[in-house]
Structure formats: C-alpha cells, structure tokens
Design brief:
The chain is 33% helix and 11% strand. It is built from eight helices and six strands.
Length: 283
C-alpha cells in the first residue's frame, strides 16, 4: 500500500504587512527631537488604560527602557495579574539624559478595568481623567466615581492637565476571551474620547506568548497571519483603525535591551506622539 498523503499544514506566515525593521534610530531620534508646537503644552499627556493584567505598567517600563537604553522598572508590576496592582492615578516622566531633563511627554497610569462591579477603575473616572479632573497621586477607589467635593478633584483643569492621547492596552493572550462586559467598557471609554476628539491607539501586548512564530523570531510580528487576524478582529470589535493598533513585546525576563523589542515600541511611540501633536495643534 502506498503512503497516505500527508496533511498540508498552513504556514503561519504571510508577506510583511508593516515595515518597521531597521528604523529604530530614526524613531528614537524623532522622539529626542520632538517639542510640542503649541506653547500652552509643555508635555503631551498620554493616558494608559485597559483590562487588569494586560501589561499597562510593563508597557510604561518598556517605553522607559527603550528611551534609556537599559531595562527599567519604575512602574510597579505584579506577575499574577488577578486584580489591578496599580492603585494610584500616577504620572510618569521619562528622563532625557541629564538630571532634571525630561522628554516632552508624560504617561498617566490608572487602575485596570475589571469584570463586574466590585473591582477595577470606574469607567467614569477614566472619563474624568481624560478631562483633567483627577489630581496626580489620587488613590483610586474601585468602581467608585471621584466626587467633585473630593480634595483630589481638579475643578478647573487647563489644557496641560487634559489628556492628549488615549492608549488602550490589551494582551494578545486574552483578546479572544475578553468578556462582552470588558469590551463594552473599553468601547464606552473610546466613544467618550471620540466626543472629546482625543486621538486613540491600541497597544497589543504579550504577542510572543500568544503566537509561537513571534516567540521564535520577533521579526515575524508583521508576517504572522494569526496576529494580523487578531488586529483585524480588534479593529472590528473596538473600532480602532488598523494603523492605530500596534503589537509590542514588553520587557519581562530580559535584563538587557533588545533592538527588535525597542523598534516595535518606538514605532508605536512615534505614531502616538504624532497623533497627540496633531490634536493639540487643532485646539
């Protein structure tokens, strides 16, 4: 008897659909040269939000690492990720070399979104943060909106207090199992930002854990058929244009920086800052 024909296993790779490799220094130089044109804005404010365990704080650390050229860990991270490890409304500056010298953009970190009504940041607090009503250092009360008579409520926010770019962080390992409730919360935040005309991007983390072909070689990120399908799905579910969705790998076990990890991160940062710059110049 002849051999049974072997099954043809579809290749997980496709033609590269986004070109980023070889441009790390260009992206980094863009960020080093950037200065807001609008004189009312000394620093672009980027608000980070998303489900608990998505890697928001790790993303902030990875941005810091790519900018500093060394692995950093200022934003505290919890490897268990069952409930949000971030409890404060906290703003992070990024050192630009010398003492007291910082990049002209900051990241604001928030408690994560959680399923149900007993944990996680209140969606209304995210909306208040976007408008600049929450003072830095506020200890967020899960599922409770900050009241106007609270000492941490900023009654008269200026343009510098307001958010100029909204970043939604989602883990590629959980995208397919996110509850409708979580999706609805993220969609609610996105619609509120749209009403304020705040630009928005999505960061897709943990791509190496979700896609073996990317874990084997991170340069496969924009060749992976499965990852491209996930980007397409997220675009449909949450409404982000595909060119506003950026797959990245956060620093996790590494103790030295890596050019490929930095390139993905810095390419996302370049677009994020560009969108924010366009926004503040349209006000």
């Amino acid at each position: 008897m002849g051999k049974a024909p072997s099954k043809v296993v579809p290749k997980p790779l496709m033609e590269e659909w986004r070109k980023v490799w070889g441009h790390k220094n260009k992206y980094l130089q863009f960020l080093k040269d950037y200065q807001p044109y609008n004189k009312e804005v000394k620093q672009l404010r980027v608000l980070i939000h998303g489900p608990t365990g998505a890697g928001k704080s790790s993303f902030i650390n990875t941005v810091d690492s790519a900018l500093q050229g060394r692995v950093t860990g200022r934003a505290l991270v919890d490897s268990i990720g069952v409930e949000s490890f971030t409890i404060k409304h906290r703003t992070f500056k990024f050192n630009k070399g010398g003492p007291g010298t910082f990049y002209p953009f900051v990241f604001t970190d928030l408690m994560g979104l959680e399923k149900g009504t007993h944990g996680g940041v209140c969606v209304e607090d995210i909306k208040l943060a976007m408008k600049g009503h929450i003072k830095d250092g506020y200890n967020i009360v899960p599922c409770t909106k900050l009241s106007e008579d609270n000492q941490n409520y900023n009654k008269d926010p200026t343009l510098k207090d307001q958010v100029h770019v909204l970043v939604c962080v989602i883990a590629a390992t959980t995208e397919n199992i996110l509850s409708d409730e979580s999706m609805n919360k993220m969609r609610d935040v996105r619609l509120a930002a749209s009403l304020m005309e705040i630009p928005q991007v999505a960061i897709l983390t943990k791509i190496d854990e979700a896609f073996p072909e990317v874990k084997t070689d991170i340069k496969n990120v924009y060749k992976s058929k499965n990852l491209k399908q996930m980007v397409d799905d997220l675009s449909v579910k949450l409404g982000f244009p595909q060119n506003c969705i950026f797959p990245v790998k956060n620093y996790h076990s590494e103790i030295e920086t890596n050019d490929e990890i930095d390139t993905l991160l810095l390419s996302a940062m370049k677009m994020t800052i560009t969108f924010g710059e366009d926004y503040v110049n349209s006000l």
